């Protein structure tokens, strides 16, 4: 489905942020391993977390959905999963495939994980290598590099593993396998990535020791305790509205219930540094995560900046929208050390460079990022989402400040993480 978006006069009003995608995945997956019934409120009803829910059902977990859309997961303990009678379809979701691989490495049965055209092109060696070192058999296409993955595990042992790149999905896969391993498992990453797995597993009684970027997990002495969680709002979804309100003139938008976990909010630090007008109000805690409301007013003037190093994992999913923001900043913005963006739902470096070029942005591709010279006058164009939800949303925000009407091809992919995106965008326009 294509979307047509015209220049916006102003954005005004308030929205509630949709539930966090990363936390929704983890809640339904981890609750499936617990002993007892877990209640998950405010689950993200979007394609990606539903891939995790359906996968856990295929592994024999009894998951109930109540009339009020709460999820009740009837977990029967760490050893309760059963051999699926079909391949597990992870859809578009790298999180589902990589986290499940960690769990399946601990099972003595046979399973196969596959996904859509995009997921079957995403690199899996990063999990195949550590899980094989632990003793699981994990094989895939193209020399174990690509899905589908076939897994047969069972008696696995703990390892000390240095991850070559920061990745919460890889870290989580190893830690989950560690729950089933003999002996302790440790994992170190070059920069700290999102820590929802550590937080949630700890709250369920897992023994985790965290020392800087190194995490050690011990095999469980008892079963994991069930969860009672209300999922906080997704900063990565809020990011599109933070950008929209900052870029569209005369705007004032209140974004409610945003999870402000420090491993996720790099974009806010960058934007404040660039001169954006953002206030955090009503800070509180929910489900062990920091939560707040964000009041965004249009930015008077933004200045270009350099984004590199350890902030990259803290804004990895915000790269597409950051490119749009940088196009309106005065001077040069460089984003580097972010080569892994080429291995997301699309090659996000190439996608944003190609599509923003069509809209008149002075953006150049680097091997590991981009260079953007602003401010640029944005013009409407026919642009492509690459069936990548974050590309579609970022281009939609660019369209709000473009002269004319922009056509976004294959825009329905926003359903992966944010089905309400276009409704909310329309609601704020006056
Ligand atoms: C995620 C981790 C990140 C992120 C993805 C969600 C997670 O991926 O890009 O959208 O939920 O753990 P990587 O671990 O590959 O960096």
Report a brief summary of the structure.
With about 425 residues, the protein is α/β, with parallel strands linked by helices. It has two domains: about 5-20 and about 230-430, UDP-n-acetylglucosamine1-carboxyvinyl-transferase, Chain (Alpha-beta prism); about 20-230, Alpha-beta prism (UDP-n-acetylglucosamine1-carboxyvinyl-transferase, Chain).
What is the number of helices?
A: 13
Total domain count: 2
The major sheet is characterized as: 4 strands, mixed
Number of DSSP E strands = 23
Mean pLDDT: 97
C-alpha Rg (nearest Å): 21 Å
Provide the CATH top-level class of the largest domain: Alpha Beta
CATH topology of the largest domain, which one?
Answer: UDP-n-acetylglucosamine1-carboxyvinyl-transferase, Chain
The named CATH superfamily of the largest domain: Enolpyruvate transferase domain
Q: Kindly name the structural category.
A: alpha/beta
Molecular structure report:
The chain has a 4-stranded mixed β-sheet. It folds into 2 domains: 3-19 and 232-428, Enolpyruvate transferase domain (UDP-n-acetylglucosamine1-carboxyvinyl-transferase, Chain, Alpha-beta prism); 21-230, UDP-n-acetylglucosamine1-carboxyvinyl-transferase, Chain (Alpha-beta prism). It has 430 residues and is of the alpha/beta class. The protein has 13 helices and 23 strands. The protein has helices at 21-31, 47-58, 94-104, 125-133, 141-144, 168-180, 196-203, 235-247, 266-274, 319-326, 348-358, 389-400, 421-427, and strands at 3-6, 12-16, 35-41, 62-65, 71-76, 88-89, 110-114, 137-140, 146-152, 160-162, 185-188, 208-211, 214-217, 228-230, 252-259, 277-286, 289-297, 306-307, 331-335, 362-366, 369-374, 382-384, 405-409. The protein starts with a strand and ends with a helix. 30% of the residues lie in helices and 27% in strands. Helix 8 packs parallel to helix 12 (389-400). The longest helix has 13 residues, at 168-180.
